[in-house]
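Could you help me review a protein record that somebody else here produced? This is what I was given.
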Amino acid sequence: MGKNLHILLLIWIALISTFSFAQSASKIKDAYGRTVILHGLNTSSSAKGEGTEHSDHQPWIKASDVEREYHSFGFNAVRYLIFWGAIEPEKDKYDEAYLAKVKERVEWYTSRKMYVIFDMHQDVYGYGVGGNGAPVWASSYSKTKNLVPDKWPWWMQNMEPTVVKSYVQFFKYKKKKELQDHYIKAWLKVVNMFKDNPYVIGYDLMNEPHGGKLVKTLAGGFERKWLSAMYKRLIPAIRKEDTSRYIFFEPRSFGVNFGMKSHLPIVKDTIVNKLVYAPHCYLTFVDVGGDYKKKHENNLKKWFKYREQETAKHQSGLLLGEFGLSPGKKDFDKYLNAIFSRLDEAQGSWTYWSSDLGGWGPLNGDRSPSPILNELLRIYPQAVAGELLSYTYEPSAHKFTMHMMSDTTIHAPTIISIPLQKYSAFPVVKITSESPFEMDKDSKNNTLVLTVKEHRKLVDIEIAIP
């Protein structure tokens, strides 16, 4: 009876998975064909500024920090911020020294077999209007005294007239075609430098796109016309140079971040199954000062409901590119774990905002762990050699379960991360499999390595910390 119940359970999981969020969308795959789940950080907000110690637009990290993320924290990815204004500070003049420094730091990750997602970052359009991203020359409007009070959330600066005009002239395209053309050329500089690095997994086309005019943005006109058109120019340009990496694309930020629907039409690519939808989650009034409360639970459900629909529409993978909360806020841990549980259900990847020391970051100013870090350290499947049916991690119980179907045409093992920082002792592992298998504990990389011998066999994995 026990065996029959087990088989029925796995059949039920397989049937449910057929209609799930995860199964309705493409999944991120590695060079072997394994399903990949990415966990990591955004690196980093510190690289945004001019006139600071990071005026070279490089993050605060050292190689030892990357080693710690990989070995102790169990992260296998980074969303690495780059800036158009740093790549092309003067029109038609590219800063090769900046790109060389980016390459040096990227190799800290890729030499450890961590995946890098390049994020062409912008906030409040660019440097010419008090934001970051676009170069000064890409704005025709000189910076004026702010009209938005400093005490308002920073993103309200998008309402400044000079910022609105700058966004409009970039996205409208007809009158200022050269702006998008230069943006595309800046991207191609990056693509051609990194397209042969197998652990550069993809390109996030633009951080938090915004249409300038709020009514047009919220009503859907910006996404339907301007943003969609920009993607239709940029994606084919990248594909002429690189047909292997993933394209990560975002909906509009204003509204969608808070939990509204996106109006972005289906994004198309010339390469099949190489698109990843990469929205951000900053629930209204949670990230700007409020605690996570009971009333926000429904808002989070709504956010995920819309993202489920949109990911299915685009037939893409899913990366939650940004999310976070101050550890000083009540129930910040419940908020993060509510997000993580839904992402696990969706088999989605994530990059937390951000790696910066202090604030929302997982480390304090002296690099000691902040309360955030404990929530980010999770047991998860980094790579699955077969069909990943489902997985869950219960942090309070220190328990992980996973169901998969083996695929012996994939000549690489299944890898499950066990973060050393959180679990210094290796856990108890129980595997129920229809096939013979080999299991190894990789103490160097703090992972469980599983090889299943027979094709299309159900495997049930349970990991528990004593």
Q: What stands out?
A: The CA atoms of residues 38 and 349 lie 5 Å apart.
